Amino acid sequence: MYAQMVKSDGPSDAELSPEERAFQARIDAGEKIEPKEWMPEGYRKTLIRQIGQHAHSEIVGQLPEGNWITRAPTLERKAILLAKVQDEAGHGLYLYSAAETLGVSRDELFEKLHSGKMKYSSIFNYPTLSWADMGAIGWLVDGAAIMNQVPLQRTSYGPYARAMVRICKEESFHQRQGYSIMMKMARGTEAQREMAQDALNRFWYPSLMMFGPSDKDSVHSAQSMAWKIKMNTNDELRQKFVDETVPQAEYLGLTVPDPDLSWNEDRGHYDFTQPDWDEFFEVLRGNGPCNEERLGARVKAWDDGAWFRDGLNAYADKAAARRLAAKTAAE
Ligand code: FAQ
To answer: Would you say which domain of life the source belongs to (predicted)?
Structure first.
């Protein structure tokens, strides 16, 4: 039903080849597609785009929080934040591995990220200005990530679906740690409560943007949903996020920065103000507050690590040559 409400970019059934029709029948029957099996080129490319973008988001997503590890207010908070940021690195690595099963190398993916040809989530182009932002990121950003990723556990590509199971478990811990920071701040001193409110004010709309453009502007949704690469439309998940998050803000005693937010009895959902989509597309074009800084940090890390990668490769080459020499001598 939702696939009909979004822009269509896929071929009609009559235009499918016999192989494509058989492939679609497997998807419709809920079968998982595994790496070595036949798949349409568009399916493979869409997965590389989405999984690659997702992996890049996890890796770039370490930067805004990594920035606060040395400034966490207690040893316990530091240990928790460190573990969370390390989890994000792990998520990136599972996802790069899942993308590699589609025939793309990790080096190619990195090259595309570093040259700006591949995207990462818009949210990581916003600055983290106070400790309360660590709470808002865990609560809202990981909360939005979970909302999007829980359905992806049922996505049609086996390696992606399986990566999502573990990632979602860890994201739940992340969301709870963020909410725990927000509770502490919201119930602390007046200054702490103000910091928590300010963090909510700044992260609310960028979090809503994480779900992607509105359905009418979503280029890929129709085809991705037909292939079960995406399980829900962008607007559907955004609405679910608002419905679940508003009561959590109320429990904290904080105000969602949307004067038009109201419960709509007839729809059984909150009505809310859409994010500024011009701002969203500007961030995607590289003009957000921190795009340059984030990409610059990743490129620098890649360049600084060149000697280490070279060393590993030289060691692997030497070990392979030794193995070959030993084998030849034994024959
Ligand atoms: N940011 O046609 P659609 C995390 C692009 S995980 C940047 O609707 P699609 C964990 C889109 O690529 C966060 N670009 O696209 C964490 C396309 O451009 P293209 C990442 C965006 O793919 C937490 C164009 O707009 N999660 O954060 C965004 O069907 C805390 C048209 O859009 C995932 O990647 C955006 N927000 O739907 C880490 C989940 N939205 O490629 C550290 C998997 C759209 O043609 C700390 N991905 N675009 O040049 C998805 O579910 C989908 O890819 C969507 C976008 C829903 C993100």
So the answer is: Bacteria
